[in-house]
Structure formats: C-alpha cells, structure tokens
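Predict structure. Input: TLC domain containing 3A, 65 residues.
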Amino acid sequence: MAGGTLFFPGLFALCSWALRRWRPEWTGTDRVMISTRLVSSVQAVLATGSGIVIIRSCNDVVAGS
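Output follows.
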C-alpha cells in the first residue's frame, strides 16, 4: 500500500512534466486534466487486474474461501 502512495503521485508528476516538455502550447489546466485521466486509467487497469486475480483464486468470493 505504501508503494501506491508514491507510485500514483509520481506518475502524475512525471506525466505533467512530460506534457510540459512535449506540448508547451498546452495550458496548465490541459496538462493537469490529461495527467489526471492517465493516472485514473492506470489505477482502473490495476484494480481490474487485482479483481480478476482474486476472483480466479477463490472458490467463493463472498465467503473468502
């Protein structure tokens, strides 16, 4: 869990920095919007992957067995 505390803000900062370098004509609002959407997409993919692993490894997801 501590890794996510560093990973997602770091990904946001990296994306914002990269967009500032690659698209200097974009406004700060545009860069923040794209960075936020990218981080949200990565988080959604990782959450979906975690859910798939849990569902495949448990016989009864509700009871946890």
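The chain has one domain: 1-63.
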